[in-house]
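Annex B. Sample input.
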Amino acid sequence: MNTSLRLRRRCRLRSAPRTGRPRRAQGTGLPAPRQQGITHAHLTQDEFVFVLEGNPVLRTDAGDTPMVPGMCAGFRAGSGDAHQLLNPTAADVVYLEVGDRSTGDLASYPDDDLVALQVDGRWRFAHKDGAPY
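Annex B, continued. Sample output.
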């Protein structure tokens, strides 16, 4: 594993911005070829990604956007704009991901029969009809 992909072990930084909500920043590696999670949107958590290395593709409801190092994207909580990072290249991708992990967030996964609710710091997963997994 190259040095930059050691970030996959997730370097974390916590801070409290003016909103008073806790934020978490983590460096994440996305080996080639791979996708970051599944397409999702958050109800109460804003998210921000900043590309450090590689050329990922950002998939949103608006379509696919190629990204290069130095580019960033933000996702407003409650917007319903589902997103996902893909790495279709032969090179690894490293990016910084920032978001808060406040209790009560709900993540929806429009392409899958899945919803996730954060309760007491833990994610609980269910089908879209509410039946637990």
